[in-house]
Amino acid sequence: MANIHINSEHLQLAEPLMEKYYDYHSTMLIDEIKHCVENSGIDYMKDLNIDYDLSFREHKDLTFAVTTPYKEEIHEHFSNYFSLQSEDEDETITDDDIVYLCLTFISYIYHKEIKGLFNRSCIIEILDIQYQNILHNQIYPEMLALYKMVLESKSKRKRGSTVTISYKQDKIDVNSAAWFLDDLEKYFKDRFPNLTLEKINQLLPDNRGKAGRKFQNRITNNLIWGTYQLLYNHHSKFKNSKTRISEDICTFIIAYLDYLNILHDLILVNVRDWLKDMLKRDYTPQWDLLWRNAFSNIQEKQPENPFERLNQPSRRYNLSNL
User: Fold this and answer.
1) 3, 6, 238, 266: which has the fewest Cβ within 10 Å?
2) Residue 26, Cβ neighbours under 10 Å: how many?
């Protein structure tokens, strides 16, 4: 078993890269942060409101320890890549150190995912999880599928072309210039002003992995992608490499998967081909948390001015028939 000490200052240094490359979100550690702040002895009450995350960030010396099933710490497993300073030396955080912190913290995030700890998070009690879950996993995908069909119909303006509307086993063919397609386009543009056909294609699950290599394990994919980007762009041994996907970086990725006890049959050529396909697709990592997934960032237009808000409450879908 390995103990990981997560320090507030170190976490804040690592967070931007974890967010960028692994889709890390601060709520992934909210339970540990809450427990740390409550037992720290600091005054974390602010105007009768409790913001554990803010309190943890304001006190950069706060640290909490977590236990993982790994046999050794990452700097021991990858001793050729990371050399930690002794306690007597002045602490100077290098780019390699931040890479080390990212890999360490992500290893704990992966442990939480595998053990199902996210499903018991305190944040679930705060949020309306049932509604959010249906909204993000059922309502939005259906709405976006229809919006996608409408946008694609704009490329079929030739006389006689048809658009097929499908729902389960039922299908109907309509003229691509049908009046209601134009009306639907205006409706969706007003409802979801920031969505484009390209964005919709990235979001819809049934559009992921249709062509080319099939991505079977989402979590493993996230780890492969994030670790590659982290090393290639920030670690001194890899970031100046003239080879986009080197053998050394593939070897490191396989060793990291082994460190995390992930069962796989990957060899160097597999990882290289995998990464080439990911780069070609502009792969986007996504952790499917109960309170946050690929559809969570969709911005649906809501009433703006006081008069609109008074006469039109924020939109909430009826789930009684679902």
Assistant:
1) 3
2) 15
List the end-to-end C-alpha distance of the chain, in Å, as a whole number.
45
DSSP 72-113: S-HHHHTTTT--PPPTTS-----HHHHHHHHHHHHHHHHHHH
Quick check: 250 and 271 in contact, CB under 8 A?
Answer: yes
Q: What is the pTM of this model?
A: 0.73
CB-based contact 229:21 (threshold 8 Å): yes
Rounded Cα–Cα distance for residues 186 and 179 (Å)? 11
Q: What is the mean pLDDT of residues 23-32?
A: 94
What is the DSSP annotation of 150-164?
Answer: HHHHTT--STT-EEE
Beta strands in 168-210 (DSSP E): 170-175
How confident is the model over 143-195, as pLDDT tens digits? 888 888 888 877 665 555 777 776 667 777 877 777 778 888 888 888 888 88
Token code pair at residue 282: 């502009």
Domain boundaries, the chain: 2-126, 129-207, 218-281
Q: 61-70, 86-95, 219-228: which has the minimum mean pLDDT?
A: 86-95
pLDDT(252) > 90: yes
